[in-house]
């Protein structure tokens, strides 16, 4: 799976890695959760059905302190969370707003405007987007794109692409 170039822009950094099992997915999510730049990032998740996008999000949200069950937003399109972000070094307030989007069921990119997503994406906080291609050109440029390819042995091949200084900071 390749991540499309966003508006003709070239990535700042591209890294490849493997998640051999779910423990590796959890470990990567935990490491990412410790990055202060995460609090304002827009992360796109690319991959086929069953590749592990929602599993990764569940581990990331748990690492950030989300309690309880993390639902897939496939039917609701978006799930929102607020967590104590005092563990992320920052001069900002101690709450972190998180939006988890799943545009899989989008049939018409105009739904973007009708649903009020522009305001959500303009708000401070972490945005995690599954199936971003279904939103057409409405999405802002991501900071980081994570492409997940499932391999025959059930491991995952991961391509991380940073499109902004925030994305590059997340990969350092």
Order of helices and strands: EHEHEEHHEEEH
SS summary, helix count = 5
Cα separation of the termini: 23 Å
Average pLDDT works out at 86
- The rough form would be described as globular
What does this structure look like?
There is one protein chain. With 172 residues, this protein is of the alpha/beta class. 24% of the residues lie in helices and 27% in strands. The chain has five helices and seven strands; from the N terminus they run E-H-E-H-E-E-H-H-E-E-E-H. It has helices at residues 22-33, 53-64, 111-115, 117-122, 165-171; strands at 13-19, 42-46, 78-84, 95-102, 126-130, 144-150, 156-162. Strands 1-7-6-2-5-4-3 form a seven-stranded mixed β-sheet, with helices on one face. It is globular and about 40 Å long. It starts with 12 loop residues before the first strand and ends with a helix. The mean pLDDT is 86.
Write the layout of secondary structure elements.
Blueprint: E1 13-19, H1 22-33, E2 42-46, H2 53-64, E3 78-84, E4 95-102, H3 111-115, H4 117-122, E5 126-130, E6 144-150, E7 156-162, H5 165-171
Parallel strand pairs: 2-5, 2-6, 4-5
Antiparallel strand pairs: 1-7, 3-4, 6-7
Helix pairs in contact: 1-2
């Amino acid at each position: 799976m390749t991540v499309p170039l966003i508006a003709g822009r070239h990535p700042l950094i591209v890294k490849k890695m493997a998640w051999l099992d779910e423990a590796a997915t959890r470990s990567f999510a935990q490491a990412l959760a410790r990055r202060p730049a995460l609090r304002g990032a827009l992360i796109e998740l690319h991959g086929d059905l069953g590749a592990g996008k929602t599993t990764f999000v569940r581990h990331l949200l748990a690492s950030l302190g989300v309690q309880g069950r993390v639902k897939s937003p496939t039917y609701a399109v978006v799930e929102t969370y607020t967590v104590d972000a005092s563990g992320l070094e920052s001069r900002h307030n101690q709450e972190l707003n998180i939006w988890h989007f799943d545009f899989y069921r989008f049939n018409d990119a105009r739904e973007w405007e009708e649903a009020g997503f522009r305001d959500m994406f303009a708000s401070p906080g972490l945005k995690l987007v599954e199936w971003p291609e279904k939103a057409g050109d409405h999405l802002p440029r991501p900071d980081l794109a994570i492409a997940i390819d499932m391999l025959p042995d059930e491991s995952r091949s991961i391509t991380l692409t940073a499109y902004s200084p925030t994305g590059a900071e997340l990969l350092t």
